[in-house]
User: Which sequence fits this backbone?
């Protein structure tokens, strides 16, 4: 059997390395024809050999254009534009897209559908989701009519992404599920299969559909395992796996996986997804109390294009820099326009604003989060909204109402198999039990929370538990307990602000909240209360 026959069989078996080596060797002896050049271009891309892939596509384009096969040449130009856009080379990609559009202008063929998809993605990026949605629909029709399954899947994927931007989430999920049926059945080109896995997972995460995100992440992992030499998409696969591991409490495994993802996505450099991996690493270090490492990684993620919020605000809060946390999360919210973007920030905003003593703003943020959760009807969002609402009710002194919300949140976290969420909800449940006069219930919830945090290695949360356990029976927040303890030493608001690295204005808000919750009118009364309850 000659080399080309071996290479073609290797391509059909998805043995990408053998195919690449065999085709390269054959090409070195006798230049490949257009069909084999396209195979070479595809496998080179999957193996992470982008320069070789682009060279093969360019040569295939030249051969087809010279032969007068304009539609097929246009498809090669599409793949060149596709890969160049993904590499961030928008000028070169735009040039190839323009060439492809000129070649299929006025033609009724499947190749025009590929060009339409590329143009539709540009239209979507320019802020016209309705226009992109229509263009993807036209490409879907061409794919169906000409029996082009890869084109149909690519166009359906794009239409689903446009539907998300248009706020038609249920329709989008239906479209994306349809794409994944064709992908898992191995009915599309491998390059599009990898792209579809990653794009669908990202959309699921963006819309808080964690069930689908977990399902497709597992499928992507299996897809990569049966093709061990694939480089393209493997880094993103590791990022998604790390995010799933983080949610499910396997933090050490998640750190290793995210580290491998960051390494893979850094070679070649300037890959946009590297910021995602760095942000996951930063989050894990923050949760474990490794704050200098977390700050450095948030900075690296920001340089790579991943906004460091809300993680950075939560880091500042953990460090006691409440003012920095407040200004950071407020700025991020001001820049977030869509409900989906705001929903990613609002839980952290509630936590930060409560620590700052701004109950009104925290309550507004929790109400907005609840409204978004009701609209999207996603278990994760419903759980986070109940958690945030319970925290606000507790801070307002309404312990009994808080209990209802927090039990809903605790059950939701358990169903999501998210132990860190369970632990944090149990801490708030303990305070709500105490506010309702149930000291034994408070003790039970704190014991359960301690078990969660110990198993996870959540050092900062473990360190805060003694403060919560010694707290008064009035629903004071952990920060308010700290302020009360310092106030009882005779410290002024300025001295307390210096000690806790917050502003005097924030201290004054905390003192006012303490007086209101404890029904006190003076610092002397607050000092007496602190000594009576073992807080001084």
Assistant:
């Amino acid at each position: 059997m000659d080399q080309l026959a071996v290479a073609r069989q290797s391509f059909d078996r998805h043995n990408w390395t053998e195919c690449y080596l065999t085709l390269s060797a054959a090409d070195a002896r006798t230049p490949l024809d257009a069909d084999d050049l396209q195979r070479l271009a595809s496998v080179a891309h999957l193996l992470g050999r982008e320069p070789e892939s682009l060279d093969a596509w360019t040569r295939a384009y030249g051969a087809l254009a010279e032969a007068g096969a304009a539609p097929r040449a246009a498809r090669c130009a599409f793949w060149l534009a596709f890969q160049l856009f993904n590499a961030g080379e928008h000028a070169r990609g735009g040039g190839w897209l323009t060439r492809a559009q000129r070649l299929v202008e006025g033609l009724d063929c499947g190749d025009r559908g590929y060009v339409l998809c590329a143009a539709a993605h540009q239209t979507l990026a320019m802020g016209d989701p309705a226009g992109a949605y229509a263009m993807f629909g036209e490409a879907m029709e061409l794919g169906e009519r000409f029996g082009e399954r890869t084109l149909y899947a690519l166009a359906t994927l794009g239409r689903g992404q446009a539907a998300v931007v248009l706020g038609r989430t249920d329709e989008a999920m239906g479209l994306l599920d349809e794409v994944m049926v064709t992908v898992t059945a191995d009915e599309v080109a491998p390059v599009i299969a990898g792209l579809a896995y990653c794009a669908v997972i990202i959309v699921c995460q963006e819309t808080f559909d964690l069930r689908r995100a977990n399902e497709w992440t597992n499928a992507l992992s299996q897809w990569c395992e049966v093709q061990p030499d694939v480089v393209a998409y493997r880094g993103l696969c590791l990022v998604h796996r790390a995010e799933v591991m983080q949610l499910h409490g396997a933090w050490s495994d998640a750190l290793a996986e995210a580290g491998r993802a960051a390494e893979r996505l850094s070679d070649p450099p300037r890959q946009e997804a590297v910021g995602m991996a760095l942000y996951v690493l930063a989050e894990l270090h923050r949760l474990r109390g490794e704050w200098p490492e977390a700050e450095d990684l948030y900075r690296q993620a920001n340089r790579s294009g991943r906004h460091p919020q809300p993680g950075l605000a939560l880091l500042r809060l953990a460090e006691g820099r409440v003012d920095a946390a407040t200004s950071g999360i407020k700025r991020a919210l001001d820049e977030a326009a869509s409900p989906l973007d705001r929903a990613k920030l609002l839980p952290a905003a509630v936590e930060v604003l409560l620590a700052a003593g701004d109950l009104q703003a925290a309550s507004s943020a929790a109400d907005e989060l609840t409204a978004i959760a009701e609209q999207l009807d996603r278990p994760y969002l419903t759980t986070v909204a109940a958690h945030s609402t319970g925290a606000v009710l507790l801070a307002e002194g309404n312990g009994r109402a808080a209990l209802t919300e927090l039990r809903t949140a605790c059950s939701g976290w358990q169903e999501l198999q998210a132990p860190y969420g369970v632990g944090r909800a149990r801490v708030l449940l303990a305070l709500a039990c105490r506010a309702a006069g149930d000291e034994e219930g408070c003790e039970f919830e704190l014991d359960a929370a301690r078990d969660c945090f110990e198993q996870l290695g959540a050092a900062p949360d473990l360190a805060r538990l003694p403060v919560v356990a010694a707290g008064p029976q009035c629903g004071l927040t952990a920060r308010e307990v700290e302020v009360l303890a310092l106030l009882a030493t005779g410290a002024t608001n300025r001295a307390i602000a210096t000690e806790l690295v917050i502003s005097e204005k924030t201290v004054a808000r905390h003192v006012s909240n303490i007086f209101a919750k404890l029904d006190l009118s003076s610092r002397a009364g607050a000092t007496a209360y602190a000594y009576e309850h073992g807080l001084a």
